[in-house]
TrEMBL record:
It comes from Pseudonocardia zijingensis. PROSITE patterns: HTH_LYSR. This is LysR substrate-binding domain-containing protein. Belongs to the LysR transcriptional regulatory family. The lineage of its organism: Bacteria, Bacillati, Actinomycetota, Actinomycetes, Pseudonocardiales. Keywords: Activator, DNA-binding, Transcription, Transcription regulation.
Length: 316
């Protein structure tokens, strides 16, 4: 099994066509076809189904694609780390970001890493906390923001901040940031909520167990964007961390207010895999991310957030 064969496999799978893959790889089409055929012969199984919609990976190919992508990523990292400029930290670092913090963190993090460590290539992935934790456990990402998590057998966790949850409605709901809303009032409205198993949903369910109201849930989703779209369309209210909705509230697209009685916060943490020593580029990005989050909290750019009182140095 050769690297060029794995590269051909991934490229065909991504574009769905041998012809397009050949153009991207600057090869003739028969050369790409031959690489795929050699892989199939070595493994003893077909890797693609040829359909009118293009080349569709078989279940066997999906397994190989996942492993091949990881192997090629590791080789890219090794090349970057073995060719550093004197005194420069180089490499590829994959970072997981919670969907709710993308607007306030993705661009500043990219800018900060580019300024402080221009030899590092940053790869950003977003999702809800449970999915990011899975990617961290399997090594698909190097570090990630997560919430409401302590150290696990596979992960080391550093607390960063605590943030308040808001109830969110359409503009005519007339919710105001300076006027907290009791959970009982929020739960009396039709609700659009995250799906069960989502970390934010667990916080909502905890508050529901205290408030004496049986809510009417009209929709559940794993997408924060969809939560906000359904609220704007008039299907109900929702619950989100302030960071995920403050810009919409400020622009008048939605209205929102802190939730109270009971007060429910989520803890945002930085998670990395347990290792005896963090490699230099991962440690550099972890330190930059930790510093940046602190700056955003202190300046008020991360709304309704307070620094966690239990900070620890990355990797320790």
């Amino acid at each position: 099994m050769e690297l060029r064969q794995l590269t051909a496999l991934l490229t065909v799978a991504e574009v769905g066509s041998v012809t397009r893959a050949a153009k991207l790889l600057h090869l003739v089409q028969p050369a790409v076809t031959r690489q795929i055929r050699l892989l199939e012969e070595e493994l003893g199984t077909p890797l693609f189904e040829r359909t009118r919609h293009g080349m569709v990976p078989t279940p066997a190919a999906e397994v190989l694609i996942m492993r091949a992508r990881r192997a090629l990523d590791e080789l890219d990292r090794a090349r970057a780390e073995l060719r550093p400029e004197p005194g420069e930290v180089t490499g590829i670092v994959s970072v997981g970001l919670l969907e709710s913090v993308l607007e306030i963190l993705a661009e500043p993090l990219t800018d900060a890493v580019a300024r402080r460590h221009p030899g590092i290539e940053l790869r950003l992935f977003s999702g809800y906390s449970g999915l990011l934790q899975q990617w961290l456990d399997t090594g698909e990402i190097d570090l990630s923001l997560l919430y409401n998590l302590s150290d696990t057998p596979s992960l080391w966790v550093a607390p960063l901040l605590r943030e308040q949850l808001w109830v969110v409605g359409p503009p005519d709901a007339d919710l105001h940031v300076g006027s907290p809303v009791p959970w009982a009032t929020a739960l009396a409205h039709p609700l659009v909520l995250p799906v069960s198993g989502h970390g934010l949903r667990a916080l909502v369910d905890r508050a529901r167990s205290v408030a004496p109201v049986q809510p009417r849930i009209v929709a559940q989703t794993n997408s924060m964007l969809l939560q906000k779209q359904l609220v704007l369309a008039g299907h109900g209210w929702t619950v989100l961390p302030a960071a995920g909705v403050a810009a919409d509230v400020a622009a008048g697209r939605l209205s929102g207010a802190p939730l109270t009685a009971p007060d429910v916060e989520r803890s945002v943490v930085l998670g990395v895999q347990h290792r005896s020593r963090l490699i230099a580029p991962v440690e550099a990005v972890a330190s930059t991310l930790t510093r940046l989050v602190g700056e955003l909290v202190r300046s008020g750019a991360w709304p309704a957030a307070t620094a966690d009182a239990r900070p620890r140095a990355a990797g320790g």
